[in-house]
Amino acid sequence: MHLRAKPWASAWLTAHSDIVISQKQATEQIGKWQMLFDENQPIHIEIGSGKGQFILGMALAHPEINYIGMEIQETAIAIAARKSFEQGGKLPNLRYIYGNGNGVETYFEKNEVAKLYLNFSDPWPKTRHESRRLTYQSFLKSYEAILPEHGEVEFKTDNRHLFEYSMVSFMNYGMRWTKDDYTLDLHQDDVKVLGNIETEYEQKFMAKGQPIYKIKAHF
């Protein structure tokens, strides 16, 4: 969902370029991302962070991991980054990229990222838009290029069609999962919901009684 522009967003992002990395800067940072964090720790990325509730929650819950939230909308990335800054200042294990998730291999080198999250991505329901879905084959190729061997992609959605499409896309690409790696109703699964950090969309759909689908797929 496209957010209404905020007049303060551009100036805030410019003033906090140590927290929010531009797309151009990101391409120059390849192979050197650990330098932006206080500790050398595994890096996890969320593509399409929206207003940042998930990535901030993860960073606060897991100080032993470095997190990067990636978002293409200026208003969304500004809201996300300002929210985290107001809550904890410049968090030692959280940074953002204001840029497109298409072509993440131009930002990171092989093995530089340990895990990747896709949360409530745009389903792009029309067939002619299939290549825009974040679980389309070309995207999976990009993810594989930055993750280690057996690297993991964690995917959540409220959209049953996108979930089924993604499972098939993962399988056709050669990715693997077991019956323990997915659920058709996350919040009714007492085991899989443990430690779950909710996104803004997740809370919205839960309030409507919609099931949340989740899968962890491995290369």
From TrEMBL:
PROSITE patterns, per the entry: SAM_MT_TRMB (PS51625)
Pathway terms, separated by semicolons: tRNA modification; N(7)-methylguanine-tRNA biosynthesis
Residues holding S-adenosyl-L-methionine: E46, E71, N100, D122
Entry keyword set: Methyltransferase, S-adenosyl-L-methionine, Transferase, tRNA processing
Position of the signal peptide: none
UniProt GO molecular function: tRNA (guanine(46)-N7)-methyltransferase activity
EC nos: 2.1.1.33
Function: Catalyzes the formation of N(7)-methylguanine at position 46 (m7G46) in tRNA.
Name this protein carries in UniProt: tRNA (guanine-N(7)-)-methyltransferase
Organism field: Leuconostoc aquikimchii
Top-level taxonomy: Bacteria, Bacillati, Bacillota, Bacilli, Lactobacillales
Gene that encodes the chain: trmB
